[in-house]
């Protein structure tokens, strides 16, 4: 069987695995970059695994060969800039025609937050390459909302600080669906999509919803001593995370609601203590 011209970088991560499944449901079997045979075996039912290490550019040559459409995502690790740039360079050398790049809703070159800076930097780099490109900038995933579930479940405490600022969220399955569209459809070249669901919560609003769902009082932090107003929460307080209609327009439906996501996933989240 001829290998697909689609290559997924970050194929075994939270979003990458969802993209593979989404493409598989549409009859695609993309190539998937993995670092080990064990990881290859985990995804071989929905992808063609290809071995390569983003920290070793020489190992990427064969893995990227023939890849015309490349999805790039990297974890927020210390050398994030290096591994993303290695992926971009490998795609260029392989003659890729399209890059779909996972950025961040609050990407900004020069940000003191390393991931935001790297995302902003590489948004600019990718836009300058002369290739078809699409940037996906999702807000916070529902799978990380709230950040600290054990504190909610065990202590009845929501460790989120941002004053009255609103926090948006989105189901990563919706992001994966949009990523698959950008990889397989025309009409997305040059687009920068800032993606949110319909929900936007202040910390107190989120605590109120969780109290209702869990049927117990969930308190918020009363000061910023445990959660300083910097980084992400500083952006929340500054009103950066506004809700957009972009995901709804792309999907042709309303994005999944957080209440619906909670209903499905809460049993697993709560099971260690209930």
Fold and architecture overview:
By secondary structure, the chain is an alpha/beta fold. Helices cover 40% and strands 16% of the residues. It is built from eleven helices and twelve strands. The protein has helices spanning 14-25, 37-43, 60-64, 80-93, 114-127, 149-155, 172-184, 203-214, 231-237, 246-251, 258-270; strands at 6-8, 31-34, 48-51, 69-72, 98-102, 132-138, 140-141, 157-158, 167-170, 191-195, 200-201, 219-220. The strands form three sheets. A seven-stranded parallel beta sheet has the order 3-2-1-4-5-6-10, sandwiched between helices. Strand 2, helix 2 (37-43) and strand 3 (48-51) form a beta-alpha-beta unit. Helix 1 (14-25) crosses helix 7 (172-184) and helix 4 packs parallel to helix 5. It starts with 5 loop residues before the first strand and ends with a helix.
Number of helices: 11
Helix content range of the residues, please?
Answer: 40-55%
Uncertain parts: none
- The N- to C-terminal Cα distance equals 49 Å
The main sheet comes to: 7 strands, parallel
So what's the oligomer here? single chain
Strand-helix topology:
Layout: E1 6-8, H1 14-25, E2 31-34, H2 37-43, E3 48-51, H3 60-64, E4 69-72, H4 80-93, E5 98-102, H5 114-127, E6 132-138, E7 140-141, H6 149-155, E8 157-158, E9 167-170, H7 172-184, E10 191-195, E11 200-201, H8 203-214, E12 219-220, H9 231-237, H10 246-251, H11 258-270
Parallel strand pairs: 1-2, 1-4, 2-3, 4-5, 5-6, 6-10, 7-9, 8-12
Antiparallel strand pairs: 9-11
């Amino acid at each position: 069987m001829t290998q697909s011209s689609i290559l997924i970088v970050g194929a075994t991560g939270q979003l990458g695995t969802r993209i593979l499944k989404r493409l598989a449901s549409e009859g695609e079997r993309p190539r998937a970059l993995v670092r080990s045979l064990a990881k290859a075996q985990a995804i071989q039912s929905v992808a063609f695994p290809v071995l390569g290490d983003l920290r070793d550019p020489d190992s990427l040559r064969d893995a990227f060969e023939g890849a015309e459409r490349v999805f790039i995502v990297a974890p927020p690790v210390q050398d994030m800039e290096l591994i993303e740039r290695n992926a971009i360079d490998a795609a260029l050398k392989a003659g890729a025609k399209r890059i779909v790049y996972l950025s961040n809703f609050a990407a900004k070159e020069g940000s003191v937050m390393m991931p935001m800076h790297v995302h902003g930097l590489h948004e600019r780099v990718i836009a300058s390459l002369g290739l078809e490109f699409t940037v996906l900038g999702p807000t916070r995933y529902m799978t990380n909302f709230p950040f600290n579930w054990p504190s909610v479940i065990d202590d009845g405490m929501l460790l989120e600080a941002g004053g009255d600022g609103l926090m948006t969220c989105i189901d990563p399955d919706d992001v994966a669906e949009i990523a698959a569209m950008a990889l397989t459809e025309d009409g997305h070249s040059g687009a920068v999509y800032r993606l949110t669901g319909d929900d936007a919560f202040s910390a107190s609003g989120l605590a109120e919803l969780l109290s209702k769902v869990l049927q117990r009082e969930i308190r918020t932090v009363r000061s910023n001593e445990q959660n300083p107003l910097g980084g992400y929460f500083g952006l929340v307080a500054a009103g950066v995370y506004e809700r957009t209609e972009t995901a709804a327009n792309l999907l042709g439906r309303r994005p999944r609601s957080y209440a619906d996501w909670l209903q499905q996933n809460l049993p697993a989240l709560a099971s260690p203590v209930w």
